[in-house]
Design goal:
By secondary structure, this protein is an all-alpha fold. The protein has one domain (2-160). It is 69% helix and 0% strand.
Length: 184
């Protein structure tokens, strides 16, 4: 299981690197577009469309990696006060709920992508097929669902493992100390 988890985390990291590289490309594109718009009164045709497509890649290729790195926003105001076992139970519930929701998103996103494929939808300005970018949504949701299932297994393992009570079995307990008159 650990080998599979390690391999999946490596795949998440590679997808995230692809997403980050598109972030860099998007920053360059927008910068050049703005500069050419104001300096030469000649904006780049389709720059907004390309930015939108790159944003899809950036977001959905980074979802699972961000979850693996615990980078998503969490509310810890209540959970931080719980015992380690209760935290693990809450984390298990959240991971299960998230995996289910993103599983539904994977399923529905795949159906939506197939519709766009059948319609042969293209973008308005550059005439780029929309289907591949629509397919990235369920792909990213699938990766996030798998990551959340990994976290679910980890949280359940944490919840059911014996809790350390601070006293090891077989260890000698020191007798209670008696205060001397001089210690008082």
């Amino acid at each position: 299981m650990k080998k599979l988890q390690t391999g999946f985390r490596e795949l998440e990291r590679k997808f995230n690197l692809v997403g980050v590289s598109f972030l860099v490309a998007m920053m360059v594109l927008v910068t050049v577009d703005v500069a050419s718009r104001y300096l030469f009164n000649a904006p780049i045709l389709g720059a907004m469309e390309l930015s939108q497509f790159m944003m899809v890649i950036l977001v959905f290729f980074g979802l699972a990696y961000t979850a693996a790195e615990k980078g998503h926003i969490m509310t810890e105001m209540v959970v931080s006060r719980l015992s380690p076992r209760m935290k693990a139970i809450v984390n298990s519930f959240v991971a299960l709920l998230g995996a289910a929701l993103f599983g539904i998103m994977t399923w529905q996103g795949t159906l939506d992508s197939m519709e766009w494929f059948k319609m042969r939808g293209i973008s308005d300005i550059l005439r780029i097929p929309i289907f591949p970018f629509r397919l990235l949504v369920p792909l990213g949701a699938l990766f996030l669902s798998i990551e959340l299932l990994i976290q679910l297994v980890d949280s359940i393992s944490e919840a059911i493992k014996p809790q350390d009570t601070g006293n090891r079995e077989g260890a000698q307990q020191s007798p209670p100390q008696v205060l001397q008159e001089s210690d008082r």
